[in-house]
Amino acid sequence: MAKHIKKRNSSSRWLYVGAVAMLMLLAWPARPAQSGNFVFYFPKTHSILPMKAYQNVRYLPALKLLNLFGHVAGIQAKRKTLKVWFESTEIRFREKNPTVRLNNAKLRLSNPPQTMEGEWMVPVDFLTEVLPTLINQTVEYQKGQNRIFIGNVKPNSFTVHMEPLDGGTQLTFQFADPISLRTAARNSRWILYLGSHPVEPIQSSFEFQNSYVSRVQFEDQDGHPKLVLTPAVKGLDFYPKLGNENKTLVADIMKPKGAEARSAPALPPPPTPRPAPKQPPAAAVVQPPAPVQGPNLSLPAVVLDAGHGGSDPGAQDGKGVLEKNLTAQIVGTVSKALQATGRYRIVLTRTDDQTVDFDQRATEANAANPIAFITFHAGNLGPSTPRVMVYTYHPSSPVEMASGADPSPLFTPWNKVQLAYLNRSRQLAQALQQDLAKDTGVAAASPMEVPLRVLRNIAAPAVAIEVGSLAPGTNPAPLTQQSFQDKIAAAVVQAIENIQGGRS
Amino acid sequence: MSRRALILSIVVAVVLGVGIYYLLTLRRHLSPSNANAQSAAQTARTRLSEAALQPAGGQNQTLTLYFPSYADGKLIAEGRSLKLASEDVQRIKQVLLALIEGSHEGHGSTLPPSATLRAVFLSPDGTAVIDLSQEALADFTPGIESEDLAVYSIVDSLAANIPAVKRVKFLVQGQEAQTLDGHIDLTGYFAPEPSLIAQTQ
Fold first, then answer.
1. How many whole angstroms separate alpha carbon A329 and alpha carbon A331?
2. How many other CB atoms sit within 10 Å of the CB of residue B71?
């Protein structure tokens, strides 16, 4: 009998353990995780504290934090409370209570202090809610950032501008204050150390869609401000240089120009930064710091946009002619013709068979501040071929038009950017249509106004040229002929010259 | 088995049961089966077609439909005799299905015959919301002119036949689409564009 009872007890014990284990698993608490560093910039130095993230809130160690700003005269820690005598103030924290007492004053944090692994931690908003009343110094902190500026520290800032070059691309970082520059390469990335002065970036990460650089990231987790450039492919050359009283950092990322120029020093597998001319060995000095055959930035820019690309083939004839290839071919011809004049800088929104979305095209185009944006398409234009149509933008709804025509808007909404340029776009379209009719003899009557997505966000005179017909059952041969494309190129050059010359 | 053990085993069974049920519902949420989605679409399509093709009482009326003419980039009017439904939403469906059916006079087509309407709504402010299926676009012949004419063929045909329709909003697969097929901006509302209609001599 006794044995029987014992057996029953043991089985129920296992059930009990199982149930408790399951309940524990269900109610397993979130655990804090290491979450990078927080950097404190003081007028002459900087300090770093490790952060912990708990339920998406960043926490800093309370005592280490206070030690950075003054003298902690004593502490009294109990299981749920912590008293700190900091300078002349008695600070009281209570676990899981967002109210912090300073002497008799109460200040409220967005999240309660926590003890994590035996250490009292305060949420990051302690820096803005409590710290300014504890210290007699100005505190400059931008919400969400992992850096704070204490006292009379004026952080530097910068803007980034990208410009395509012949066989490369050029990144220009315009700083508000002078910087110093030191370069390094690590894990196939280029690192540009910007000196000891703190930097507060307006945006800390920039993504690019081109074949040279894919990402630029600002980092200062170790207290040293730096830019980390991730090249899009391996084997590119990198030429950073400082100019404009050390306020402008220009970085050219180029395809290697013939291996023979640098055959002596073996090229390391990761891209090697080549700092400004005078620094290292003779071989590097031979390399021109600036692109020799780069475009003249003082020339007016013309943006040529080859429609579709990458995973989006566009229209097709059903026998292998794809719109994306045809538009790239036409853009190549037009680009050569414009370049031959020597009067324009050509900016291409895609240089390869790549997927580029509408906003990326607009960003690339607007950054160049062009005198004209021309997008090329091919599609169904009816049975008579070849035909060319010219289009300008027209919003789908008249309501949009009315609000977009506000004569002095403070900010132009992104989706109404083109409205401010409609008149000049129409002038360009008119000029194009006339020149196309003259040169190709196939243009349609007059330019059409359509709600064309790719033109919507262009901050410049912008038109679309569509050639046709490219559709199943039509013969695309006339569209692929070089003579036809040369005529289009000649008409584009003529039209651009006309609008530049002031003709409407 | 003692009473305590019995209670515990019941608790464990309940917790297990709830857990398994929760996981199953989670899985269903994450990956709704294709078969379900397809059959739902099929049902919706059938229901829509049935609703639109139901003969309404009364006499035949003549609809004005606008079909694209690619040669001159205009919309050409074409009459179509139909028994029109009394409700505006049903009329919108009838006009759309008549457009999908295509021109009887050899003009260009608005949407391919494979196009299906997933849903149609008409809001009190006169906005007709038209939800097209993704398949409709797969067979579409893309191009700036062809897309522009397709969109305004629908908008102008609806405005001409249903006075309550003031503007049209297009959805694709129930969601706002950037473009119809790479060109025409579908994020806005489309007001009728009478200037695209060819003047008859």
1. 5
2. 13
Q: Report the C-alpha gap between B139 and B114 in whole angstroms.
A: 7
Three-state secondary-structure class, residue A396: coil
* Nearest Cβ partner for A453 among B8, B183, B189: B183
In the block, tokens 């059959």 appear at B39
Going along chain A from its start, the domains and CATH numbers come out as 33-150 (3.30.457.10), 158-286 (2.60.40.3500), 301-500 (3.40.630.40)
- Per CB-CB distance under 8 Å, the chain A contacts of B16 are 22
**pLDDT tens profile B109-119:** 888 877 788 89
Strands (E), A382-493: 387-393, 448-450, 462-468
SS3 content of chain B, % helix, strand, coil (to 5): 45, 20, 35
CB atoms within 10 A of CB A361: 25
CA distance A127 to A386: 68
Q: Are A253 and A238 spatial neighbours (Cβ–Cβ below 8 Å)?
A: yes
Does A379 contact B143 at a Cβ distance shorter than 8 Å? yes
Q: What is the pLDDT of residues A291-333, one digit of tens each?
A: 334 456 778 999 999 999 888 888 888 777 889 999 999 999 9
- At position B166, the amino acid (one-letter code) is K
What tokens appear for A405 in the block?
């025509």
CB-CB under 8 Å, A16 with B148: no
CA angle A160, A162, A163 (to 5 degrees): 145
Check if the beta carbon of residue A193 is closer than 8 Å to that of residue A224: yes
Which residues 78-137 of chain B have a CB within 8 Å of chain A? 108
For chain B, domain boundaries: 49-196
Comparing CB atoms, the residue among B72, B108, B142 nearest residue A314 is B142
Q: A504 pLDDT exceeds 50? A: no
- Burial label for A482, CB within 10 Å (0-12, 13-18, 19+), is exposed
Prediction ipTM score: 0.73
| Exposed/middle/buried for residue A5 (C-beta within 10 Å: 0-12, 13-18, 19+) | exposed
The residue ranges of DSSP E strands in A5-123, in sequence order, are 33-41, 46-54, 57-61, 72-77, 81-86, 89-94, 97-102, 105-108, 114-116, 119-123
Q: What angle do CA A309, A313, A314 make, to 5 degrees?
A: 105
The top-scoring range by mean pLDDT among A38-47, A137-146, A184-193, B123-132 is B123-132
